[in-house]
Amino acid sequence: MAGEMSFTRVLIANRGEIARRIQRGCRKLGLESVAVFSDADRDAPFVAEADHAVCIGGAAPSDSYLNVEAILEAARATGAGAVHPGYGFLSENAGFAAAVEAAGLVFIGPEPDAIARMGSKIEAKAAAEAAGVPVLPGYRGEDQSDARLLQEAEALGTPFLVKASTGGGGRGMRLVSDLGDAPEAIASARAEAQSAFGDPAVFLERYAPRARHVEVQVLGDTHGTVLHLGDRDCSLQRNHQKLIEEAPAADLPEAVRDRMRAAAVRLAQAIGYRSAGTVEYLYDPGRGEYYFLEMNTRLQVEHPVTEAITGIDLVEWQLRIARGEPLALTQGDVQFDGHAIEIRIAAENPAENFHPETGEITLWAPPADVRLDTGVECGSVVGHHYDSMIAKLIVHAPDRTGAIRRAITAIDAFAVGGVGLNLAYQRALLAHPDFAAFRHHTSGLPEMFPGGWTEPSADPRDMAFAAMALHLRLVPAGASPWESLGSWRLTAPAGQSGAAFYWDTTKDEPIRMYGSGSGLTAIQPDGQTITVESAALTGCRLSGRIDGVPFSRIAYVVRAPSHWRVHLQTPAGMTATDLRTLEDQHLQRATGGSGVADLLSAPMPGAVAEVRVALGDRVKAGDTLVVLEAMKLLQSLPAPVAGVVTEIYCAPGDTVAGHAPLIKLDPEENT
């Protein structure tokens, strides 16, 4: 692409928070935006906020966000002159970029040839070597025979990685620590690569334990200028998926940093790169060396931390470069200010093996004064069709210590209801001494939480505050409890002061509440007593005085179907406490509680990937009966009890709702 390109309307071939982010960039330049959306996203915020919107298919990505012809038809129908792919989906698909240009549209990203070349990890490493960028020792040859791969594995020595040539995210990757395991590792990596990316080619690479993931942001125009915008550290990862990113990369020798940045620019220049891109490295602190991993030919999820420390709007410059504009700054103009951290917010439960969470968001109360890139709001429905990341929290401070502190403060003020998020887990990572001291690395989570991670719960004092918040929500401060019966049952005329009862849903004994706002007393089941003077719940803030000392906590009280949930800010972070009133408790007893021990139900909406049993099969408790796919993850659903399969309510390919029955068992005790 050469010269000025004219377009006034941009189709965004993506969804969620990145679609909204690109919309903001379009508005900044006076460009109109076109949203394409699936049936599942019809009511999503990014659709409502676009200047134009077109439904392009069903909820499955293959029917919509991966449907090239439907996207191009939407561009033609709306008169869009350019297409921005965002990240994920088709963003690094060279065929899609070529199809966009063949349709006479501007692709807001690099040339298709550059995407294809960097999309093959084997070709990318060859290009890096040619540009003088260090790469890890290994084998990247065309001979993919078992004999050659095993021969090269023996020459390389353990430990090493078998990696898929195409794709990423840890798919098609196997660690080999014993040469005897190499044949199986190669076979399984090939199979997964073929399934995930349609290409079984693999390569071998030396494994660097305790390595860090460092990357350099580059920006190139169509006139031959390439700049770097500094570096980022993305070493906190789970299963090769980034959790927390920061800029600049801390604890990095300046000489190494300079070489990394210069090498990234050399590589981008060598392939004629335009638009925003990221050169990723593996940094080995023990050796003081860095090695090329790959180049992402798109906007990165973590681009906001670079924007925060440079003040440069990457989406704006992607759009301007796509119009043919030259970069209006030199390398010397790029200045770095302070430290930024991004926290990926995902709808998942880290305490239960990162189980995906779905449902309607009933409370969305983010902190003020920090950047939040999000695809949801209160009332949004988080489904099972797409990635679990729904938002990103970005903070900026003068130094790293201040950025960590500000990130923790922001998480502590973030309340969400209806759908569980990973915020408490991310807070634990930020507060961990290994993160503060930069002892963490890409495979370091088991070292940080050797016994696993458990979500913090409210301590007895916090439980009392949660019950007070609920009490004040039901009986406002200053009101007479006798005017609103609610959960009150002991009356002043009977000769006793009024009392309210609130049950923690996990306990049998209630918290008793006496008094009023002028002096409210909570008595715990173990007898502990807390009295709060001038107790009040004003908006989302619980306040009062204890022994004359003022206190204030963020508190949100939300009604759930069978109980109340209180989101309370505590010294350990934001906690959620489920409480029942006396009426709730009676109703729960009347309906017989919950759960049927001999019935396997879907824990979330999803697609049935496998049914591993047949009618009449005898199973043990814990045996996998069904494999459910939700949010791009496979969930193995175990038998709740030992017994015989008597009913099967689903089949592979079925889409099932949350709590839908899947398998019925006749328990072993009956057989």
Automatic annotation (TrEMBL):
The lineage of its organism: Bacteria, Pseudomonadati, Pseudomonadota, Alphaproteobacteria, Rhodobacterales. Pfam families: Biotin_carb_C, Biotin_carb_N, Biotin_lipoyl, CPSase_L_D2. Residues 125-323 form the ATP-grasp domain. This is Acetyl/propionyl-CoA carboxylase subunit alpha. Its cofactor is biotin. The keyword Nucleotide-binding applies. GO terms for molecular function: ATP binding; ligase activity; metal ion binding. Residues 591-666 form the Lipoyl-binding domain. It comes from the Bacteria. InterPro entries: ATP-grasp, BC-like_N, Biotin_BS, Biotin_carboxylase_complex, Biotin_carboxylation_dom, Biotin_COase_C, Biotin_lipoyl, CPAse_ATP-bd. Residues 6-450 form the Biotin carboxylation domain. Keywords: ATP-binding, Biotin, Ligase, Nucleotide-binding.
